[in-house]
Amino acid sequence: MIESGERLGVEEWPRALDRFGKLLISLYRLAASAPASKFQELALEEARQALEFDSAFWAAGTIDAAGPKIHTVFAFRQPPEMMESWEKLKHHDNVLKKALAQPGQTVRATALGPEGGEPFVPEVVAHARQYGMEHILGTVVVNLEIGLLEGAGFYRADKRRPFTDVELQFKQNLLPHLVEAWSINRLASVTPERRQASPMRIATAICDRSGVLFSAGPDLAALLQLEWPGWHGPLLPAELWAKGGARHVGAQIVVSVEEINDLWLLRVRQRLPIDQLSPRELDVARRFAEGRSYHEIAGTMYISPATVRNHLKNIYAKLGIRDKAALANLVRRN
């Protein structure tokens, strides 16, 4: 923790960089190990050790032609009443408006007035002082390609301790790492089997039942644009969510869907030759690749051995292969 009264001034750049590097290591370790329900609290506590602040606000949402829509908010070291109060005032929040207007740039604001940074509008001053928000560093990052935004505000209650220029830069460079670490943590928590390396490019995403993205892993936009060249978020293509979460096999990609409480987890990959098989053919192919005989497959699928043989003949023809080893290799890749 920064000692009482100490601030990161311009002469403190070397120490600030050292703290920044150590903080990043801690954040990415948390991304790999912390429960998703605790990540934001633990990450902000780590950040508070490197850049002293009293409380924080971390929000995520989507952005489209109608403007930003916040769908999750995490208040750090603040009571629930703070959020209730802010909801009534948010249309007056000039700091949020300015941060949205210049994504990636940190806004320094204060209840003190113009001499301390961007001044709060009068409607917000009483709220800010009630909840120890005398000084704020507010930052928003926007991914226009998939239509997601995340923002965070760090607050200090002491009127005598405005944030310095170095602290502003520290926060500005920190937020993209907070966002990325949080995305890694969320996706890893629902896809633990995907932590192993895979030669295939697979993108994961979390959306609601209306197809609105909540989180997206690397490569999602690139893969979706193979199928829908003009796509951009935050709403997924209707073909992926209008069918009630059914698996989608397109001309270029395959999307599988898994229910996670009231959300959907999507896994997106490029289409493989084996994807042209019918569900019944794919079932036969998997069983045969596992080493089962014609008679074993016939018995478990309630079909005749001759039908199994015909299915395999069609499978080999569709895939352009000649032996079981090649089939097993394709099944493993799928």
Describe this structure in words.
The chain is built from twelve helices and eleven strands. The chain is an alpha+beta fold. The strands form two sheets. The chain has a six-stranded mixed beta sheet with strand order 2-1-6-5-3-4, with helices on both faces. Strands 8-7-11-10-9 form a five-stranded antiparallel beta sheet. The longest helix has 26 residues. The two termini are 49 Å apart.
Mean of all residue-level pLDDT scores: 85
Proportion of residues in β-strands:
15-25%
Separation, N- and C-terminal Cα atoms: 49 Å
Discrete helix count: 12
Low-confidence stretches: 1-6, 193-198
- The string of secondary-structure elements, in order, is HHEEHHEEHEEHEEHHEEEHHHH
User: For the largest beta sheet, what order do the strands appear in spatially?
Assistant: 2-1-6-5-3-4
Structural class by SSE content: alpha+beta
- Say how many strands there are: 11
- Our Rg estimate from Cα atoms comes to 26 Å
Helix content: 40-55%
State the major sheet: 6 strands, mixed
What characteristic shape results from the CA principal axes? elongated
Features:
334 residues, alpha+beta, six-stranded mixed β-sheet, five-stranded antiparallel β-sheet, 11 strands, 43% helix, elongated
The gist of it:
This protein has 334 residues and is of the alpha+beta class. Helices cover 43% and strands 22% of the residues.
List the helices and strands and how they pair.
Layout lengths: L12 H21 L5 H12 L4 E10 L2 E10 L3 H10 L4 H8 L5 E4 L7 E2 L2 H9 L4 E9 L4 E9 L8 H26 L11 E6 L5 E4 L3 H8 L10 H4 L6 E2 L3 E8 L2 E8 L8 H11 L4 H8 L3 H15 L4 H10 L1
Parallel strand pairs: 3-4
Antiparallel strand pairs: 1-2, 1-6, 3-5, 5-6, 7-8, 7-11, 9-10, 10-11
